[in-house]
What does this fold into?
Amino acid sequence: MISIREYAKKNNVSYEAIRKQVKRYETELKGHIHKQNRTHFLDDEAVAILDQHRQESPVVILNQDTSDRIRQLEEENRNLLIKVAAQADKIAELSEWKSEHAVMIAEANTNKLLLEEKTKQFDELKADNRQLTDELAITKQELEHERNKGFFAKLFGGK
It folds into this structure.
């Protein structure tokens, strides 16, 4: 007695292939397959029947499309590699562009800070200029007033 799984392994085929063969020749194998729990066992007669059918009609798996499919997949692979390389080039260009523009943005921010500092200094100088202009105007008025005083008023400090 041998299990279907062991028989498949011994013949280098899948369990499913033997299970299908057992199903196909069910009437011939009747009484030669014994079920114990969930395992099906083949007696010597069942093994002989299956072996005879396997020799009469060997299963040949023919896949004519394999080489064409392989060529097609290789071509797809080449095309994808080309696309990946192109995308890598674009990524490199964008990284370079980003780096260049990051420098420009940093320079622009520095220039903005400098401009703000200079504007602040300009506003301070403008305020100082206004104050000095006001003081000059007052001094001119005082000077004009002193010029308009008479000789004795200048001498004795009068108005």
